[in-house]
Amino acid sequence: MSSPRYYVAMQHARSAQPMRPSEVQLREVRPVDLPRLYAYESDPAWCAMAMVKPRSPEAFDAVWEKIFAGSAMGETDVLQRVILADGEVCGLIGCRAVGDRCEVGYGLGRAFWGRGITSRALATLLAEVPKRPLYATAAATNTASIRVLTKHGFVVEERRTVLETERHLAREEVSLVLW
Ligand SMILES: CC(C)(COP(=O)(O)OP(=O)(O)OC[C@H]1O[C@@H](n2cnc3c(N)ncnc32)[C@H](O)[C@@H]1OP(=O)(O)O)[C@@H](O)C(=O)NCCC(=O)NCCS
């Protein structure tokens, strides 16, 4: 990952305070957030935990162009929120239509892991999104993600082995549902 925006954002992430934030909030995603969000999801540790392959900057930008265009046209099949911890952009959470399901997803920059931030962000998202059931999928090895979900009432629906895709590595994965 030699992109300058990767290094700028990772330096910023490393300077974050190693403590639980007093405030966790969600807000809409702005184009100015994208370099930092890209840096977070390009971290090899992030990819290893989620068992995904890193995306090229072009692929990332194309996804966001589509999301911004859809939201400008009033489409509601994707809802994404930046997670702010004491005002600092530390990650992303949201839900999107996958077939006829609404799937929740999230991820934080590595410097913010283990401070209870995603748990609090998910509580806020669930209060904002009334739709049920909601679904989520995690690599079976992603204990932290599965714990975040089960703490909020998601239950394991299925465990399966999936082949490699353009985005995911071959993996054991768990599918969860919130009724
Ligand atoms: C998974 C991820 C979102 C968790 O976010 P987080 O803010 O660190 O999670 P929290 O601090 O809210 O912790 C949630 C629970 O998981 C536990 N946990 C956190 N990190 C853990 C780890 N590495 N191993 C085991 N449990 C862990 C916490 O103890 C907590 O449980 P508790 O409330 O019973 O103590 C974060 O690690 C991440 O962004 N990873 C990379 C991207 C990713 O995997 N996204 C999810 C794809 S499905």
The CATH class is identified as Alpha Beta
Distance from first to last alpha carbon:
40 Å
CATH homologous superfamily classification: Gcn5-related N-acetyltransferase (GNAT)
Number of strands: 7
CATH topology: Aminopeptidase
N to C succession of SSEs: HEHHHEEEHEHEE
Please report which band the strand proportion falls in: under 5%, 5-15%, 15-25%, 25-35%, 35-45% or over 45%.
Answer: 25-35%
The mean pLDDT is 92
Characterize the largest beta sheet: strand count, sense, and whether it forms a barrel. 4 strands, antiparallel
Hetero compounds: coenzyme A
Number of helices in the DSSP assignment? 6
Q: What ranges have pLDDT less than 50 throughout 5 or more consecutive residues?
A: none
Radius of gyration: 16 Å
Architecture, CATH level 2?
3-Layer(aba) Sandwich
- Helicity, in percent? 25-40%
Helix and strand content put the structural class at alpha+beta
Strand line-up in the sheet with most strands: 1-2-3-4
Shape: globular
